[in-house]
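Q: I'm building a small set of examples for a reading group on sequence design. Run inverse folding on the following structure and report the sequence directly after it, with nothing in between.
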């Protein structure tokens, strides 16, 4: 085996150390560099469960993170960015062509559907060619007297990255709490202003996450703080009239494996303080009238038991998997919210998976999947119900933004693979849908020119895995068409068949677009999630590869004609399936990929590691989990061989998948690969997990990925 790609079990001696030194600022290649940067190898070893692991690229993690100041690390990242720009330069005409097409499908000016709240109408708008939104409101008595509530455009000026985290207007309508992030590290600074005078009402609060929640008197608000490890474990109260006093601590979580959030029930009478992991939680209730009242615990945490709470009509409605893994709806009287008083309202079963709910005056709206397909169920307080009818056979529908409790309509968001995003109001009495907005495609879009279908691929263990497809009607089915296969498969986050204006650029160039609904998501129910986590994690990777084989066997495409993409945990998927079946893929895009799984799960100091153990396993304490993760971790399983053209992205300030994971992966892959295919790393030096923040800047990154894929397919023609 080449010592350029040592396995984890091997030990590197001093004689094995390569002579290559780290890329320094002086050595960093120019933007005309012809050769890729080669990261230095430095001896680094750690031992767990009597197994020693060599990690020669561990030095790419700055010990002072989240500050990244090490000159060798920065030089390497800049060198990779220079190499990316050099290699993409010949593709710039194609990038610009694609960007123009994709941007042309975005309206120059856009606006959200207005919603009513506490005597006002609210709306966001994009000005002509604006990258960021402006927020407006108008009194109900003067519906056209729109006034600026908050303008993101000047706030974003001068910042490489800008994100508005939350907006929260006080019940009196006179005060605004909003939070912003200008680094991409998801540590938001919370500001509170007087809406009319624009004067600050309190000292800004740093390191927050989530929304401020006002009390019923507009005199104070709750806010959640993240600690140095980016863990939200505390909720505080800020009293506007007593800022000289320390903000009282309202709630604190002691378990670093849990994360705390606070939300307002739909009735706005109670705040739910939720603390939990991906699979376990508990909820504390706080009356909005008095944040100093003792919080009431609804049910003590129990491993692998979830419950989610809303309030209205004098009772709490709880969605929980206490009885059935596909969740039930339960109810409890307002005065006795504890679990001993819960009674069943509606049951889930193997066909009916309850995924969300909303309490309105006189009604309960349930998000549901029936046999894996999205449904909206409307129930009255006596349990009488019906489903909202939609014309298409497969689609994505969800409860939209519903600001009011006492309403005759519920707002829904709808899309399919061929139907642009549509906002409806559904009349709860008349059972009619009113279209409020259909996503505009200014350059034109004819849905009749595209076909969508759903098929089932048989995985190697016999399980049927759904695939959603969309393609232009002129696409040949003789195995020559390039196919873009997308997947995620983690955290129970299912992928629904939805529309993408950008995707049209690929479909019109003969690509088939496919979504593999692999295990690890929850498309077919909670069991679909359970069958892709912990010791069943490899089902996720196997499903994706088996979906590719199915698409080849059915004549949609051929080996080497499939481009694949995924981000975050989907980036882990990319690394794993490339290791398993590199010959299938024509090109790969792994965005902020979670590829250094073993090292990350062994480091309890990282912000997301303890909360992630229920998802991946705890390799610190469990030797079986250690062996399992090590056996599939993309970084650990890289071997000498041939790899497809690969584009990897990272964010220097990313708190979710830290920058060094993709950087280490690319460094090791360069040492392992025995081909001349492109391997590119692009690190956003001023952004985080989501990449560029401006709406058009983000589209340019899509154009870069598409150009990379199209070029790879041309090379294979």
């Amino acid at each position: 085996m080449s010592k350029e790609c040592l396995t984890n079990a091997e030990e590197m001696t001093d004689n094995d150390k390569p002579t290559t030194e780290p890329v320094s600022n002086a050595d960093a290649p120019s933007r005309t560099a012809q050769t890729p940067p080669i990261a230095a190898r430095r001896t680094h070893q750690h031992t767990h469960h009597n197994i020693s692991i060599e990690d020669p690229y561990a030095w790419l993690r700055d010990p002072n993170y989240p500050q990244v100041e090490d000159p060798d690390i920065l030089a390497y990242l800049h060198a990779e960015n220079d190499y990316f720009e050099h290699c993409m330069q010949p593709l710039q005409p194609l990038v610009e062509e694609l960007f123009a097409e994709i941007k042309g499908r975005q309206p120059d000016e856009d606006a959200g559907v207005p919603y009513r709240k506490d005597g006002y109408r609210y709306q966001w708008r994009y000005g002509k060619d604006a990258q960021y939104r402006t927020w407006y409101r108008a009194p109900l008595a003067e519906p056209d007297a729109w006034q600026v509530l908050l303008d993101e455009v000047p706030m974003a000026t001068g910042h490489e990255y800008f994100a508005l985290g939350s907006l929260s207007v006080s019940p009196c309508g006179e005060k605004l709490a909003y939070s912003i992030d200008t680094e991409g590290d998801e540590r938001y600074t919370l500001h509170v202003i007087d809406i009319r005078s624009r004067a600050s009402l309190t000292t800004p609060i740093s390191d927050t996450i989530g929304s401020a929640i006002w009390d019923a008197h507009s005199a104070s608000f709750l806010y959640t703080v993240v600690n140095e490890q980016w863990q939200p474990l505390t909720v505080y109260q800020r009293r506007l009239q007593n800022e000289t006093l320390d903000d009282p601590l309202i709630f604190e979580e002691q378990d670093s494996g849990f994360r705390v959030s606070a939300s307002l029930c739909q009735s706005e009478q109670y705040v739910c303080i939720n603390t939990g992991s991906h699979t376990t939680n508990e909820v504390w209730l706080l009356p909005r009238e008095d944040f100093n009242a003792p919080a009431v615990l609804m049910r003590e945490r129990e491993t692998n038991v979830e419950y989610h709470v809303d309030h209205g009509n004098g009772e709490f409605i709880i969605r929980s998997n206490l009885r059935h893994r596909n969740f039930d709806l339960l109810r409890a009287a307002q005065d006795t919210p504890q679990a001993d008083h819960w009674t069943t309202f509606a049951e889930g079963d193997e066909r009916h998976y309850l995924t969300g709910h909303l309490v309105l005056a006189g009604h309960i709206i349930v998000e549901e999947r029936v046999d894996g397909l999205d449904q909206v169920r409307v129930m009255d307080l006596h349990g009488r119900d019906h489903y909202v009818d939609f014309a298409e056979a497969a689609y994505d529908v969800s409860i939209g933004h519903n600001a009011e409790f006492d309403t005759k309509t519920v707002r829904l968001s709808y899309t399919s693979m061929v139907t642009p995003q549509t906002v409806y109001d559904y009349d709860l009495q008349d059972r009619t849908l009113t279209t409020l907005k259909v996503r505009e495609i200014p350059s034109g879009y004819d849905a009749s020119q595209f076909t969508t279908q759903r098929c089932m691929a048989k995985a190697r263990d016999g399980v049927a895995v759904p695939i959603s497809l969309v393609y232009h009607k002129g696409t040949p089915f003789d195995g020559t068409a390039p196919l873009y296969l997308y997947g995620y498969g983690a955290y129970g986050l299912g992928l629904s068949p939805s529309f993408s204006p950008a995707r049209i650029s690929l479909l019109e160039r003969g690509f088939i677009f496919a979504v593999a609904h692999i295990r690890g998501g929850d498309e077919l129910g909670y069991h679909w999630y359970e069958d892709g986590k912990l010791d069943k994690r490899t089902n996720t990777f196997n499903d994706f590869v088996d979906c590719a084989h199915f698409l080849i066997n059915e004549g949609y495409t051929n080996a080497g004609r499939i481009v694949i993409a995924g981000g975050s945990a989907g980036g882990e998927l990319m690394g794993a399936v490339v290791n398993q079946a590199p010959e299938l893929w024509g090109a790969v895009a792994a965005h902020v990929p979670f590829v250094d799984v073993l090292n990350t799960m062994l480091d309890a100091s990282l912000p997301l590691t303890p909360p992630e153990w229920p998802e991946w396993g705890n390799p610190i304490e469990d030797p079986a989990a250690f062996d399992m993760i090590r056996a599939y971790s993309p970084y650990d399983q890289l071997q000498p061989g041939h790899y497809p053209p690969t584009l990897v992205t990272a964010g220097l300030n990313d708190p979710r998948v830290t920058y060094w994971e993709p950087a280490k992966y690319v460094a090791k892959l360069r040492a392992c690969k025995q081909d001349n295919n492109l391997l590119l790393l692009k690190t956003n030096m001023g952004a985080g997990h989501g990449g560029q923040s401006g709406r058009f800047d983000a589209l340019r990154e899509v154009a870069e990925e598409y150009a990379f894929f199209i070029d790879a397919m041309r090379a294979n023609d």
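Residues 1-32 have pLDDT under 50 and may be disordered.
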